[in-house]
Amino acid sequence: MMYQPKTYFEQGGDTFVVAAGGTLRIETGGAVQAPSGASLLSYALPFDIADGSADATYYIPVPFAGTLTGIITAIDGAVGTANITVTASIGGVAVTDGLVTIATAGSAAGDFDSASPSANNVVAAGSVVALAVAGGGSGSSPRLHGSLIITR
Fold first, then answer.
1. Among 109, 106, 110, which Cα is nearest to 77's?
2. How far apart are CA 90 and CA 33, in angstroms?
3. DSSP class per residue in 38-57
């Protein structure tokens, strides 16, 4: 009986195959990238905040260990009278570059804002990222939608 490896290059050498029972392991420092250069080891944790004008802290559970590499937001309507800020922290420590500012001036439904955390951004499986939301002016102005981008 001939041994058939569970990982191999297809004949012709252009396709690497991981067959049933095989494993592809990415070692520390390694990455899997899409043709665009984006990591395929990132995932989004969505969140919704009903009232961006209500000062409050929201807790987003993180099911996998990784690094918080992005915070993105969109709004459903114009911001009332003051900028809205969304500030991330992990374990009570502010995430460096983890602040999203949603500007009042010129704001409208569909506005997209983001932050690219650079330090104090490592999360453990089963931990939470706290998002402190402040500003916005008068009540119910506007609803916020967003995602935390975690890279494993």
1. 109
2. 27
3. -BTTEEEEEEEES-TTS-EE
Two tokens, residue 54 = 């209500």
Asked if residue 57 lies in contact with residue 130, where contact means CB atoms within 8 angstroms, the answer is yes
Residue with tokens 């460096």, as numbered in its chain: 96
Q: What is the tens place of the pLDDT at every residue in 44-71?
A: 999 999 988 889 999 999 999 999 999 9
pTM: 0.79
CA-CA-CA-CA torsion sign (2, 4, 9, 10): positive
CA–CA dist 107, 124 (Å, integer): 35
CA–CA distance, 69 with 116 (Å, rounded to integer): 6
